[in-house]
Amino acid sequence: MEFSLSGFDIAIFVGFIIAVVSLGVLKSRKEKSSEDYFLAGRGLSWWLIGFSLIAANISTEQFIGMSGSAAKWLGLAIASYEWMAAITLVIVAFFFLPMFLRSGIYTIPEFLQYRYNEAARSVMAMFMILTYVFVTFAAVVYSGALTVKTLFGGQEILGITITITSACWVIGVLAAAYVASGGLKACAWADLLQGSALIVGGAIVVILAMRELGVATVETIPELANIDINAGAVEKFRALNSHKLHMVMPRSDPEIPWTALVLGLWIPNFYYWGLNQYITQRTLGAKSLGEGQKGIVFAAALKLIIPFIIVIPGIIAFNLYKLDMKDEAADNNKTVLAKFEQVQSEPVGAKTAFKFNDDFVEMYQEKALAIIAFNHALAGEKTPETMPEDFKAMVGINNGLLNKISEKNKALDKQQHIEISSELIGYKYDAAFALLIKKLVPSGLRGFMLAAILGAVMSSLASMLNSASTIFTMDIYRKYINKKASQINLVTTGRICVGVFAVIGCSIAPMLDDPKFGGIFKYIQEFQGFISPGILAVFVFGLLVKKAPPITGVVGLLLNPPMYYLLKLMMPSLAFLDRMAISFFCVLAVMGIITMIKPLKEPKVMPIKTDINLESSGIAKVLGLVVVALTVALYIFFW
Fold first, then answer.
1. Rounded mean pLDDT of 387-397?
2. CA–CA separation, 445 and 451 (whole Å)
3. What pLDDT sits at residue 99?
4. Coil, helix or strand at residue 221
5. What are the DSSP calls for 417-431, one per residue?
6. pTM of the prediction?
7. Is 354 helix (H, G, I), strand (E, B) or coil?
């Protein structure tokens, strides 16, 4: 089934994009200073902050990655990233934001200079730039390109053949051109339209998916054989997915075990919403503390509905279109399987060992057994006469062989190393949301949906590029390269950075099509673990322990990456959220030891460097408590 756009769709799509760009450019046309460009002149209102926070956060990272994770075994449990964020945002509004606005900072790393020293500021700045460019920007570009490829793959549009690579470059270049022209104010006003479109577009997909499930038959979904065919969409959804409609996963789950709900999941949440520049930059641009708090609480309320327009569709997509996901996976597997067929008869001397997951075993058991036999020979071991029938056990045996081959590589020259192939998969779960659009959205609505998806990508990418350029310009360039830079020079430097960072990110993005990354959402969360526990520990410790010396900030930041890597190397089966929790406490412990040995003589007093209105909002406090209560109620209902 080829996805195409009618003339009306094209008109809607083009009109929406023109409206977004025009609004952003119009509202930012008077920018002259670095504060205008990077912080929107510190004049953002609460409703603009709220929509902008959601638009900057919700992108194809969620529509593709989170719905894909929901289509897998995780189901509704993946919604913890959203519902925990609601509580996190309320805490950020009343504990983090007052401190940040009081100090008058442009960037989050700048705050570390006031609490610790310049070295801590510079280390965090470099960590965040590297993460934004190599992880989050590249991942969002890729997820947007995957949507375009799933919808239009192989077609030629405006002389460009749609592939993952070509789509990555088109999306990245458009985002870079947009943010370079307008800065934060352009992003915030454009987010007003894009955030609204995201919510409306997601709601449309939920309605269409539920309607399709309601008319589904045993012929289209064999699992309906034991369900009353006259049941409604909601009843069918519950019956088909009862094992996915709960928030708690077993301790052994590799992604979100119940232990992560206790602590591990709070670490990326507090880092992301409280210390992540491309999110907090909106709140730093608030016209007052009260406006910022109301905007954050508004965003927290919106977070409660996000799982219903992203996670639920992902679950339904697997019910309706798992065969299409199988076809997408087969397309991914082609190159690896072709290589296996080429070397299968001669394992001795082969340079590649082959990896697969349990979905692949379930659908291609004979092929999986052949791969296990091949890997046994490659590892120099005899193949057992009998093999377990359990799919996960077969994966475990094969992974054990791959570990032995990796150990064997350590004793060999690099040229003799045996490579591990990309993982062979049974389903391409990340195609879930795009398949719903492709299969269900009728002509006339496709243009709007495509505009909403592209708007999601553009909004997040613009935020990341603007924030990365802000950090480089204010924390690196002005601090070390040109201390006397003029306002025009600072803005120009920021715009140049946008272009450079976009080129780097677009070069990396196509590589993420490799299944070894385990899905785009997991890729982002996993790699942020190298910095987020350390950054959060440094902030929390510095704010609570007033006599912590400057060196603790630097040590805490530098200690986390190698510690997290060692945990990943030595305990690969440990969920990455649990690795974050261990890293977080280890960093705190080391900082505590240093402070006991050499505390400051006097408690650190943070400076007040702003004339902004710092009066807290009473109505925001009340509504914040309501959001927390609703979040707890959702957990109880779906526990």
1. 83
2. 10
3. 87
4. coil
5. PPEEEEEE-S--GGG
6. 0.79
7. strand
